[in-house]
Design brief:
alpha/beta, 39% helix, 11 helices, TIM Barrel, 14% strand, globular, two-stranded antiparallel sheet
């Protein structure tokens, strides 16, 4: 595993296991599988309704709580509602703290919502705070009106949308770039079958999915691929078994179509900021 250091010196695995759209009934098993494979970062959210399963899997894993980096995302708006929501997340996760809590998306009351995250950080209920699906303008508003700079911005990022507009801004301000949908979901099959991707996979004796993940992690972008297939979970984890050259990374820039798999949220469209 490779780690990145957040802007408050907290270390986070650069590769995590995502639980988006994982049914609550399956969550315990697949998260347990991921932890057995070696993942030490699990990403969940209040809206996923599977925090309890994540908590149970971590508790039953035999690992120390401090060995697993747990991220959740708020589904609330405003100061009090967000503080209450964080407490409820902690109960569902059966944990005294989160490693990272982020605002899931802009909600119209971002400043007060974020201040609740700052309070949770101050009280030791989380080790780091951040945002998801925030564009440059929205981040600038937060930074002008709050005290703690976001540790991460979790945004859609993959070969077909490389976020070459957001990435330099995040780097400039010490905000780590985190990718959701790193394998492109709707574009996944198409991207994996690109001749250039297949050629790299053949060269390094890895899968096309591993190439797509390594393309991101080699650039310091946190990734949280999701799969319920144990073999795919293992394969994704093994994406550190090789390293592409700088020239190979650069050669993949041409595939940036600035295309979203869902066209959501509209504020992340590069013409919106």
């Amino acid at each position: 595993m490779e780690y990145i250091t957040l802007n408050n010196d907290v270390k986070m695995p650069i590769l995590g296991y995502g639980t988006f759209q994982t049914p609550p009934t399956q969550t315990v098993q697949v998260v347990a599988d991921a932890l057995k494979v070696g993942y030490r970062s699990i990403d969940t959210a209040q809206v996923y309704q599977n925090e309890s399963g994540v908590g149970e899997a971590v508790l039953n894993s035999g690992l120390k709580r401090s060995d697993v980096f747990v991220t959740s995302k708020t589904q609330t708006k405003g100061y009090q509602a967000t503080l209450q929501g964080i407490d409820e997340s902690l109960k569902r996760l059966n944990s005294d703290y989160l490693d990272l809590i982020i605002i899931h998306w802009p909600n119209g009351d971002d400043i007060e919502t974020y201040k609740a995250l700052e309070q949770a950080l101050k009280e030791g209920k989380t080790r780091a705070i951040g945002v998801s699906n925030f564009n440059i303008k929205q981040l600038e508003v937060l930074m002008k009106n709050t005290d703690v700079v976001s540790a991460v911005d979790q945004i859609e990022t993959h070969l077909y949308w490389q976020q070459q507009k957001m990435h330099p801004f995040l780097e400039e301000h010490g905000i780590k770039h985190e990718s959701w949908a790193p394998l492109g979901e709707n574009f996944g099959g198409e991207m994996m079958n690109l001749p250039e991707i297949k050629d790299l996979a053949n060269k390094y004796h890895v899968s096309s999915a591993q190439v797509l993940l390594r393309f991101l992690t080699q650039q310091g972008i946190i990734t949280i691929p999701k799969s319920t297939n144990v073999e795919h979970i293992k394969s994704n984890f093994d994406s550190f078994s090789f390293k592409m050259t700088d020239e190979e990374i650069k050669s993949l820039r041409k595939f940036d179509k600035h295309n979203s798999i869902k066209n959501w949220p509209e504020s992340m469209d590069e013409t919106a900021y």
